[in-house]
Amino acid sequence: MWAVAGALLAAFVLLSVAGALAGPHLHVGAAIAGVAAAVALLVVALAEANGDLAWALFGIDLAASAAIGLSAWNGLRHLHHLGDRALEAAPPPPGLVGCLGEAVSALGPEGIVRVRGEQWTAVSMNGRAPARARVQVIGVDGLRLQVWNEETGTNGLPAPDWPNDGQEVSP
Fold first, then answer.
1. Closest by CA position to 31, among listed 7, 3, 11, 45
2. Which end of the chain is more exposed for a tag (fewer CB within 10 A), N or C?
3. How many other CB atoms are there within 10 angstroms of residue 104's CB atom?
């Protein structure tokens, strides 16, 4: 019976960790495995004359299962409250399209830009851009800005002799 209790405790721990990464649905499975482990530990504690370890594990498992179960209930309640909005992508930040900014690092074509005083991950849609190049936001893809290299003379073409190529701009 110790083997059964151990296997159920292992399932409880694995599902708890997976639930922390994947969401409250796995926490429900963890709570069920924890309650099953508690039952197995209770049987072991009652069957053995010296079941101090089983009683200690039973108490710990019961408290942990209750905590994980409450976490699952709260997470599922929150998801139910959000409904279909929980699956929608976050809207792009308002008003960034059309704004001018500066490349903090060289965009080759990905890098960091500063727009409205905030740093963003960006991808240059017309090729490479050197650090300190002036860029314009032409789109937003999640939390990544799509920018157009406005630097005169570069036209987004690779040029190995650009100053500050690959270096970050100090704030």
1. 11
2. C
3. 20
